[in-house]
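Recall the central idea of this unit: under ordinary conditions, the amino acid sequence of a chain determines the structure it adopts. In this exercise we apply that idea directly, starting from the sequence alone.
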Amino acid sequence: MAAPVRFVVVDDGRASEVDATLAPDGVRLAPDAVHAALGWALQPQGLCRGDACLPVRPEHGLVRDDGVDLAALAERLDRPLALDVDERIAWLGASAAERGARLRSLDAPDFALPDLGGQEHRLTDFRGRKVFLLAWASW
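Accordingly, the structure predicted from this sequence is:
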């Protein structure tokens, strides 16, 4: 079995550095690393986060002798995975269902930008008021 290496897992914009095992067929995380990075805990009833549990069956290839397969986990969660093994980083994107729910809510995600004077403003500072956003790019 290969020695663990430090690996960065980004989920919902939050980066977590955890130990991972690099196998020829993928990246494996120890169950405690999955919990630390993604909030999913391996329990007898499956992989759980809060009240939600994913059944863990052998045919899913999710749990192996050397840990939880990151690509199989992303597939079971129905989330896209961008994986760069050489750079030791993985990014889990939002599922199509989650993105669709956000779009249907018509709520813009919060963000912060500085004005010309350098003062930072957040979109939530203007909640309940009309906001006009103008974006420009030179390319």
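The mean pLDDT is 88.
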